[in-house]
């Protein structure tokens, strides 16, 4: 049975408290994400986990990053994560369980490091290095001015779905029927929803659709998950060559997050992304995440493989949308 079309008004007005199907689906998606981040211990520093419902034809890379961070944090006490460096090795099946192994690489007085491998059916999908430190409170070295505007004045990401061209309409509808567990607001359509390629940075707003339990690490983990959204699309948007989703694959090779201060991710955060290099089939995108007070809370970087669909497929890493 086809899902009942979501009213266009559900894309433009408030998400929270609307009582519409998009709000219900977004809240359900967050419930499910919290569930897959409750890792099941199966041995010393070993865990098992499930995945979100398939949204991209493979496991979302942000989910794997969040699970790696969750597993690493379970083996560290009294320290906060400050960096995650993840490399995607191959795609995963969202219907099959994941095995997560943590290696205690280093434990010092003020810093610790963990190596995490996430596997499926004996094959590694992702490796990650997660670093922790005491993260003491300090004065702000950098604040971002001029980026904090009325977030809800921008349309929801799903607003652009019903404007997608016919060639993209099928995949576009996924963002309504199986939305991310986030409220995302963006002033211009992403390329995967028919947006126009353009150079320069692009920004959007994001937050969790409700409060969550679990303290600072839970909010950091959710931010790490969300940090993976739209980076591939930014590589398409600003690529120096003419590329598009009907002619090219976009695959994430690696993803890095530096965490500068604690976050409350049930409040608005402003994410600015910009392509900084493109050579051959690879592009590098950097990102800056700022809270509503203008505090720079995290930085990201991602290398993206942008390859013509007509080329033979080898062992592709995980697509992160």
Automatic annotation (TrEMBL):
Residues 177-306 form the Acyl-CoA thioesterase-like C-terminal domain. One of its GO terms (biological process) is acyl-CoA metabolic process. Residues 56-132 form the Acyl-CoA thioesterase-like N-terminal HotDog domain. SUPFAM superfamilies: Thioesterase/thiol ester dehydrase-isomerase (SSF54637). Keywords: Hydrolase. The keyword Transmembrane helix does not apply. It comes from the Bacteria. InterPro entries: ACOT8-like_C, Acyl-CoA_hotdog, Acyl_CoA_thio, HotDog_dom_sf, TesB_ACOT8-like_N. GO terms for molecular function: fatty acyl-CoA hydrolase activity. Belongs to the C/M/P thioester hydrolase family. This is Acyl-CoA thioesterase II. It comes from Mycolicibacter senuensis. The lineage of its organism: Bacteria, Bacillati, Actinomycetota, Actinomycetes, Mycobacteriales.
């Amino acid at each position: 049975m086809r899902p009942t079309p979501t009213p266009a008004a559900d894309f433009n007005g408030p998400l929270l408290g609307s009582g519409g199907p998009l709000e219900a689906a977004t809240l359900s998606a967050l419930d499910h994400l919290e569930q897959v981040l409750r890792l099941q211990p199966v041995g010393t520093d070993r865990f098992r986990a499930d995945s979100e419902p398939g949204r991209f034809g493979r496991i979302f890379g942000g989910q794997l990053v969040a699970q790696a961070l969750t597993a690493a944090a379970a083996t560290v006490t009294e320290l906060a994560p400050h960096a995650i460096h993840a490399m995607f090795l191959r795609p995963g099946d969202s219907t099959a369980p994941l095995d997560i192994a943590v290696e205690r690489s280093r434990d010092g007085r003020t810093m610790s490091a963990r190596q995490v491998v996430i596997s499926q059916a004996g094959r590694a999908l992702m490796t990650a290095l997660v670093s922790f430190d005491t993260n003491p409170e300090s004065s702000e070295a950098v604040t971002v001015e001029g980026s904090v505007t009325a977030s809800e004045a921008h349309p929801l990401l799903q607003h652009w779905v019903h404007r997608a061209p016919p060639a993209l309409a099928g995949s576009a509808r996924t963002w309504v029927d199986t939305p991310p567990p986030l409220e995302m607001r963006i002033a211009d359509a992403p390329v995967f929803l028919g947006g126009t390629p353009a150079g320069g940075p692009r920004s959007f707003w994001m937050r969790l659709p409700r409060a969550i339990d679990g303290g600072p690490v839970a909010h950091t983990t959710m931010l790490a998950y969300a940090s993976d959204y739209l980076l591939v699309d930014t590589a398409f948007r600003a690529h120096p060559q003419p590329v598009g989703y009907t002619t090219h694959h976009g695959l994430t090779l690696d993803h890095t997050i530096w965490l500068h201060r604690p976050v409350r991710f049930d409040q608005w955060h402003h994410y600015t992304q910009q392509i900084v290099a493109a050579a051959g089939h690879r592009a590098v995108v950097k990102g800056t995440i700022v809270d509503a007070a203008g505090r720079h809370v995290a930085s990201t970087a991602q290398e993206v493989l942008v390859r013509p669909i007509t080329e033979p497929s080898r062992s592709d890493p995980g697509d992160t949308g």
